[in-house]
Amino acid sequence: MLSYWKLHKTPILLGIGSLLFYAVFAHDLNREDFPKLLSLYAALFFLHFKLIQFEKWNFKFLLVVGILFRLTFLWAEPNLSQDFYRFIWDGELIKNGINPYIHLPKDLISQIDLPIANAQELFDGMGSLSARHYSNYPPVNQIIFALASFLGGGSILGSVITMRLTIILADIGILVFGRKLLQNLNRSNHVAFWYFLNPLVIIELTGNLHFEGVMLFFFVWALYLISNKKWAIAAPVYAAAIMVKLVPILFLPLFLRFFGFKKSVWFYLLVAVSSVLLLLPFYSSVFIDNYSETVGLWFSNFEFNAGFYNAVKMVAVDCFEAKPWELVKIYGKWVAGVVVLGAMLLALLRKNQTLTALITSMLILLTGYYLLSTTVHPWYLVFLVGLAMFTKFRFAMLWSFLVILSYFAYSNVDFDENLWLLAFEYLLVIGYLIYEIMGRSGKKLDFFKK
């Protein structure tokens, strides 16, 4: 036992230290306490960096510590996000045969006989913004919400635990299929732990119950199947990823050169049919209008942790006296058009014949979208971290650390953002991205070469 301790002392101590910090993060932190939040996150990021240095430690060791980090959150309610209240609300609606896409919470809450457990607590918890809009979560997400409500037995914590276990299983699936895909791409499968042990991934997914990880599980699984030339089976799996989060739709044009025209048509058709089948249980005559209206809000109404947009707004407001509430709507429509155009250009002009090139194009497109977007919540970057591990680029890892600066806004009563902190975040990320694009690999830190 003593010899085992001497041999494994450093990684064990790193694991114990991380476990303690995650426990504090889960049970003794609120998002208004920014200094404590930043200190804990910085410590966790440093420890995860040191843990990954121990490449000699086998898969089982890093798998176990990664699961233990996640389990520290199991009995805790999310402390950095209130979205889970809406998740459970939607799940309770479905459990009781009510379509969440056609009923507003603010209308339902006034019903005396509303068959929803903890209805008032869920309504108050989700906030007024969510309460006055239709659900914007796609069907596979809704199925998970309903399962959580059913297994939770009317308990908010029970539903939280069910969703949390689902997210943990998805992350384990990403690790397993990610390692297999990395091997098929002739890359070190140890890189998968850059995702699995990343504090942003653990805190925002398992901790705060965001479902980017479930979407990424289906997405990575689909890419793995494609790498094994099983594209027909991959299509419905890819559709499931879209039906968790809509983002993978952006990448569909990029498959054109990879598959060729004929096979691409069949792939698109299978994805479309699978998506429609998943949508059918929720379809109604007003579904499309309600859902489109809600999703459109994310392009034209919200602002958080924006990069390029903040620079545009500063110039437009100060120099041209533009009205911010009108600017964000115009800018949002412009971004949507630019992203679609960018996807088409990458599909037609870039050589995406290999899977590595295809994934790199996906990374380029998603990075461009986030840099231009008016809203970049920290958990959005989980997809970027997942994509980056299959490429030579590591700027997403840096961004996953710096994005914690955006939480400064919650330390203010009016949720005002600190534009200096956001500028620092984006300048460092863009600077390192330029550094990587220029290919100065000889001067990169050793951990970026794994």
Radius of gyration: 22 Å
Percent of residues in helices comes to: 55-70%
How would you describe the shape? globular
What percent strand? under 5%
Largest sheet: none
H/E order of the elements? HHHHHHHHHHHHHHHHHHHHHH
Derived from helix and strand composition plus strand pairing, the structural class reads mainly alpha
Number of helices: 22
Protein architecture, described:
The protein has helices at 2-27, 34-53, 59-71, 83-95, 105-108, 119-126, 128-131, 139-152, 156-184, 193-196, 199-207, 212-227, 231-242, 255-259, 261-279, 287-300, 308-320, 324-349, 355-372, 381-388, 395-402, 419-437. With 450 residues, it is an all-alpha fold. Helix 1 packs antiparallel against helix 2 (34-53), helix 4 packs antiparallel against helix 6 and helix 21 runs antiparallel to helix 22 (419-437).
Provide key terms for this protein:
disordered C terminus; mainly alpha; about 65% helix; globular; 22 helices; about 0% strand; single chain; about 450 residues
Strand and helix map with partners:
Blueprint: H1 2-27, H2 34-53, H3 59-71, H4 83-95, H5 105-108, H6 119-126, H7 128-131, H8 139-152, H9 156-184, H10 193-196, H11 199-207, H12 212-227, H13 231-242, H14 255-259, H15 261-279, H16 287-300, H17 308-320, H18 324-349, H19 355-372, H20 381-388, H21 395-402, H22 419-437
Q: Nutshell version of this structure?
A:
With 450 residues, the chain is mainly α.
